[in-house]
Amino acid sequence: MIAFWAVAGVMSAAAAVIILHRAAAASRAQLVDPTLGLYRRQLGEIDELAERGLLSDAERRGAHAEAARRLLAAADAGSAPWVAAGGRRPILIAAIAAPLAAAGLYLAVGDLGARDQPYVQRLAAWRDADPESLAPPQMAAVLRALAAERPRDPDTLRYLAMAEAASQDINAATVALRRAVAVAPERGDLWDMLGEALTAQADGAATPDAVAAFREGLKRNPRSMSARFHLARASIEAGDRESGVRMWRELLADMGPDDGRRRALQAAIYEAEHGRTPAAADDPTRAAIRGMVSGLAERLRVAPDDPPGWVRLVRSYAVLGDATARDAALATARVRYAGRADVLRDLDEAARAQPMTITAPRTAP
Amino acid sequence: MIIEIGAFALCLALVLSLAQTGLSGSARLRRSQPLAAAGEGAAIAGFLALAVAFAALMHAFVVSDFSVANVAANSHTAKPLLYRVAGTWGSHEGSMLLWCLALAGYGAGVAAFGRGLPAGLRALTLATQGALGVLFLAYTVFASNPMARLAQPPVEGRSLNPLLQDPALAVHPPFLYAGYVGMSVVFSLAVAALIEGRVDAAWARWVRPWTLAAWSMLTIGITLGAFWAYYELGWGGWWFWDPVENASFMPWLVATALLHSSIVTEKRGAIAGWTVFLALAAFTFSMLGAFLVRSGVLTSVHAFAVDPTRGVLLLAILGVASGAAFALFVWRAPALTPGGVFAPISRESSLVLNNVLLAAATATVLLGTLYPLIREAVSGEAISVGPPYFTLTFVPLMGALLLLLPAGPLLAWKRGDAAGVLQRLWAAALIALATGLAAFALVDPRHAFGAIGVAAGAWLIAGAGAELAERVRAFRVPAAESLRRLVRLPRGAWGMTLAHAGLGVFVLGACFETSWKAEAAQALPIGGSLDVGAYHLVLEDVRAVEGPNYLAERGRIRATRGERLVCEAAPERRFFLTGGQTTSEVAICQRGASHLYLVLGERRASASGASVWLVRAYWNPWASLIFFGPVIMALGGLVSLSDRRLRLAVGRRAEAAS
User: Are residues B181 and B233 located together in one domain of the fold?
Assistant: First the structure.
């Protein structure tokens, strides 16, 4: 803060010196009205143009007479003289008061003591910190820097993609995974992740790029659950329901009895076969979302400085129709970000999200 | 600490503007040299303080300091350095700081180079300039502070609108603002002259260099904006009569009128009141533009999305500054001395007619820009006024202006000889007629209006040539004598010839391009083709590329004419990761002055499932002239400005020399 005031003082002093120096120089100068000089120059210019052959004699005479009349009129009009002395007090007051007023104004509108926070410095602090304490966007920033240092390391890129996805930046996750498969095309897991990221990027649609990525993944790992699941779903979306359901059933057969994904897959098969989802109580999607939301709530409990995370949590509770949890999370976040109008706005908007509805069938499968 | 130093410097600049107004105003009241000089010192110090504030904000953008709200909202670490720098003026808050910097810069310019002005006029000009500075700086500090901090900075910024991440647009605002805000000096000179009760030939001479400088900058700024819109938006056009484009065009039209009326006032002491009115109107239109762009009343790709509250404040500034100035005008104008008389056929009359047409053209643009807003405010009904309105109203007025333009400089002052002028212009008329007929006969398809436009462009260029020939008495004196006269022509004359010829070049390009452009659009698979004009285009391949902050699909399009390869173009469709926006990067194959303009659109799946890309192609004949013409015009302005008669501080040097 001392350095700040020192620099502010130097700037103020410089401004005062400029004002005082100009005033002092003016008190020594003799003021001449430039109007007469300008009209004299005009007369000279007319003569010069005529000498260059650019004005005819008649034009020269006319212009000369008019300019001469102006010169005489200006000479006759004259003007009251200006004084070269006096005014010392108001000048001194201005030179002193201006910096003081500026300091007062700054104290009212500025943020005294706020440090600069260049990105490089913040990044260095995050790199030195315990990774567990970092919010996903901070982790992503650290991993981006690492990936720039190790562009040929597929695992760094894979972790970067995971961090970007956790930060809700699926576009950046896709870019990281594209780089990862470019440096390690032999790794089926990376192709699977890329396929999943591309599917998420397209709001769940099986795009040609995503299908191509899953095929690459399946080539390298024929037992890949993710690739088989998504390729089957792509078949169903493309109209080949029979083949898609068959692939899913094969996948189900390959899953262990305790595999947590079984219920989700069974529900998907049911929906494909019956054109509707199973009962809400048994809905694996809702259960999966609940699991993710619990994870997010836990992460925010450990590392609460994550505005997008809070917005996501509030929206998730709203979507699940859990008004009590939504309001509790909203209240906590509102207190935490009381000074952040942008975050508060996002939180309020998230709280207004409509609960998702599931059409429950009358009978269970 | 750097950003806080900037915040302090901004506060200091505001207080110094206040001091500038007080010291300069009281200097005029007490006729005190030291007070006036202290006011000048405050103007210079205020400019330096703002330069520090601007540098501090730029530093925050360069180092991605997201603790500054403005940086967090408009920058990103992945953004290339050029656009991080340009981000300084890419937002509403940053551009207000640039506006204030230009305002203070012009004030400091008057203080530093205004010794050629009478003391009273200079002091009052600086007082007015300071008052404008107080209004805009107070608005910036209290309502749009670019240095505002965030308690908890985000990890990453939201980045700058991808459409603005373009080299032309990075330099467009500084030129535009140098033009807009340059009009403030003219405004201040007018207010000062009205207070002094002195609007004479000398005043007009002092006004001209500032107007010329601002007009030249504004011309370059508008041209850069049009060029950006042409190649960045991918619509194949260069001017859309968008309200924000109009907002920059209106001050330009008024400044053009002012440039010409000030000549009449300077040479003959006539139409002084009208010249002062234009001087006030030019900056009023600049402020109106600032209001339209920032108030949120307009929806435009060029507009800042700003809340209406801040728009109301800008409207209040406009009301206070212009209201006070025009009230002063109403009070003082009747006392202005009438100037010399002139005949209906004379140089003065031609310049007055020029002003009438330009003023009418400004009024039509103003009506077309504001009417939809007024209508929506009154009835709630949203309407848009588009090119058909402007074609019907603006174009005929400009047509009349272009027709009369070459005659003006050939007419004598006081009483002109119309028959003599027509005689001197017969060659130009013949060239224009021949060019128009050739365009009508040779260019397919036949287009009468296009041919008339081409003839108008040729008329302007040949007319400028005829005027030059008249000055050097070409073919009437020996060639050596003509050459001697040519070399000794004042730069002001060269500037005028260049500006008029530049307008002709622009008209030529605009009319030809508008009349004979061709376009084609088709969804193409790899290897697919389409024809536009005389060109056959084949989409050779499309591959993914990765930019610093975007992913792109880059097409390779092979353009042939007959069997001959014309160019291989690489248009891109860019997807910006932050914000998820998609932009088109147009590829332009330059064919002489014409453009083969290619846009790669979105990828789709064809019926067979294969990928196809929507390719749009335009053949824009003579399109380069549209942008080259205004550059020549601006060059003309700068050449005029370098004329020693108009150079700033020439009076001081002349006095020193004597």
Answer: yes
Task: Indicate if B402 and B439 belong to the same structural domain.
Answer: no
Q: How confident is the model at residue B607 (pLDDT cuts 50, 70, 90)?
A: confident
Q: Do B173 and B114 belong to one domain?
A: no
B603 token code pair: 């990828």
Tens of pLDDT, residue by residue over B322-379, are: 999 999 999 988 887 777 777 788 888 899 999 999 999 999 999 999 888 888 878 8
Domain encompassing residue B583? 518-620
The ipTM estimated for the assembled molecules is 0.84
* B126 and B103 within one domain: yes
- What is the identity of the amino acid at A176? A
Q: Is the Cβ of A136 closer than 8 Å to some Cβ of chain B?
A: no
Q: Is residue B636 part of a domain?
A: no
The CA-to-CA distance between both ends of chain A, in Å, stands at 70
Question: By the CB < 8 Å criterion, does A103 face chain B?
Answer: yes
Q: Are residues B191 and B88 part of one domain?
A: no
B positions 131-190 inside 8 Å of A (CB): 141-142, 145, 147-156
Of B129, B149, B169, which one is at a domain's C-terminal end? B149
B42 — contact with chain A (CB < 8 Å)?
yes
Same structural domain, B142 and B191: no
Residue B120 lies in a domain: yes
Q: Packing angle between helix B308-332 and helix B272-294, nearest 10 degrees?
A: 170
CB contact under 8 A, A22 and B40: yes
CA A121 from chain center: how many Å? 18
B236 in a domain, yes or no?
Answer: yes
- Over the stretch A217-270, which tens digit does the pLDDT of each residue have? 888 988 888 888 888 888 888 888 888 888 888 888 888 777 777 777 888 888
**Are B336 and B321 in the same domain?**
yes
Task: Give how far B63 is from chain A: nearest CA, Å.
Answer: 5
Which of A27, A103, A117 has its CB closest to that of B66? A117
| Window B:10-39, CB contacts with A under 8 Å | 11-12, 14-16, 18-19, 22-23, 26-27, 30-38
Q: Do A85 and B34 touch (CB under 8 A)?
A: yes
b/e per residue, B475-506, with b = 16+ CB within 10 A?
Answer: eeeeeeebeebeeebbbbbbbbbbbbbbbbbb
A262 exposed, middle or buried (CB, 10 Å; 0-12, 13-18, 19+)? middle
Contact with chain B for residue A344, Cβ under 8 A: no
Asked if A3 and B651 come within 8 Å (Cβ–Cβ), the reply is no
The count of CB pairs under 8 A between chains A and B is 262
A79: CB partners within 8 A, 6+ apart: A33, B118, B120
Are residues B590 and B573 in contact, defined by beta-carbon separation less than 8 angstroms? Answer: no
Q: Tokens standing for B341?
A: 């008389």
Q: Do B508 and B524 belong to one domain? A: no
The verdict on residue B116 lying in a domain is: yes
Number of domains comprising chain B: 4
For A41, which of B9, B141, B654 is closest by C-beta distance?
B654
* Stretch 306-335 of chain B: residues touching chain A, C-beta under 8 Å: none
Q: Enter the tokens of residue A325.
A: 């949890």
| Tens-place pLDDT, residues A324-339 | 678 778 877 877 776 6
pLDDT band at A365 (very low <50, low <70, confident <90, very high): very low
Q: Which of helix, strand or coil describes residue A255?
A: coil
Q: Output phi, psi for B600, to 5 deg.
A: -95, 120
Exposure string of B174-211, with b = 16+ CB inside 10 Å and e = fewer, is: bbbbbbbbbbbbbbbbbbbbbbbebbbbbbbbbbbbbb
